[in-house]
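LOG
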Amino acid sequence: MWENSGDPHTRETARVYVLNDAGDVWPFAGDLAATPGEDQSLVELDGRQIEAARLIQCWRWLFGER
């Protein structure tokens, strides 16, 4: 579980989703975009992490979703 390193007095944990196949990224981003609160999560692929909010933003731009 990833810990937010922002304010040490209010440690929060973010959900981390680990994807095994790059082909799953865009369908998964669409699912994240449709689920309230998931923009606070992290997504990991090949040992690299991205904030779900950034992934959702890219998905919306690529696919013209709002």
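LOG (cont.) second protein
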Amino acid sequence: MISPASPTVGDKVPADIRIVCIKSTTLRVDQSILTGESVSVIKHTDAVPDMRAVNQDKKNMLFSGTNISSGKAIGIAVSTGVATEIGKIRDQMAATEQEKTPLQAKMDEFGEQLSKVISLICVAVWAINIGHFNDPVHGGSWIRGAVYYFKIAVALAVAAIPEGLPAVITTCLALGTRRMAKKNAIVRSLPSVETLGCTSVICSDKTGTLTTNQMCVTKMFIIKSADGENVNLDAFDISGSKYTPEGEVSQGGSKINCSGYDGLVELATICALCNDSSLDYNEVKT
């Protein structure tokens, strides 16, 4: 069944869509979530001759989960759900077996060695006391003596197992996570703290991996005065982050009234007229 779709600027693409017609001058798509490209990609309707082309080269396709940066298009949905490119990545991640960290591997090795040593000691303790199986204290019964010393060997094995070791290791990792949280570093997996303990250099990826991938204005400049080639600028600081409508405009650390500056009013007017984006804000939603 053919399903037509008409994504426009600001929309998140709901499926893998083959572009049929572009209803704007250009169509730009932010597909960093899929391909890792930090800049938006220009799309077109021309066919891609290479059937083995990777997703980055499929300029006539809109992929599920990506965002329309500018423009409007009409297309046909060719894949939905887990059949999309982003769905295939999700299936591959779900099928990937989680590898053990060095700490987990060492703990498994320690557990195996400890079990073997304890087993040998228990057998040795039981074998050493074979001559006491017929002692009068056991009623002269060899079987009762064997069972008695077997219980002693089992009790020795239970006492030798460090039952508090997992709790101690978890506590140490939790303390490491707490220290990193104070440095504004959030750890999703406790075992990763052990790996970071031997890390000296961290090479971070591009925007969107360690950040929110939402660029925001932090400074504005307007012309204060101009005399020939000499131009004086007024600089303003803008607080707030991401796309939340929160923040203030200040100059020299003091909050200002933007309506008192003609340059700021004109700059805001230009920003409002030269884009077709919209911001949906719900004051009740937390």
